[in-house]
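Subject: Sanity check before I submit

Could someone independently write out the structure tokens for this chain? I want to compare against mine line by line before I put it in a report. The sequence has 189 residues.
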Amino acid sequence: MSTLKVHTMDSAPEGSKEILNQTQQSLGFVPNLFGVFSESPAVLKSYLALSENFEKESAFDATERQVVLITISFENECTYCVAAHSVISSMTGVSQEVVTALRDNTPLDNPKLEALRSFTRSVVSHRGFVPEDDLNAFLQAGYESRHVLEVILGAALKTISNFTNHVAETPLDPAFSPAEWSKPVNSES
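---
Independent answer below. Compare away.
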């Protein structure tokens, strides 16, 4: 059992309360992950800054962003984040076929998206020491050097949330529970 608490707006440290209030206003609830993050206002603020930059400044479209985030969460076996991003994907127009393939670890029909998933998996599994063939395949699929760095940005973002969820054993929010997930038994990464 984790000793990390899922804070509410009432129990959160002062430096996190305004962010939790804004989250409540915009989403209608405070995700349990944010409740855990709020123990450290620095972590909560850093996560949100990385998330905003990945969302608004990267060259990836909505589907590509979710391919990166779900792939990393899959590789890190983060049940919370795979479920959350499955729901977020449907809200942002990502096709259910893409989400299902990512959750089930089956190939994506779109070759460029499959190259993105393969490269993202390589970044995570090789801890950044990506084999040259994997990098070349990614670039040959139509991605650029900028995208390489933005996959790494996605990895930084998901490392914070995936590892926090592992340590905190963050309970899945009711909003994400319809997309509850566990890694397929016969799945090789």
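---
OP: Matches mine. For the report I'm noting this point. The first helix runs from residue 14 to 27.
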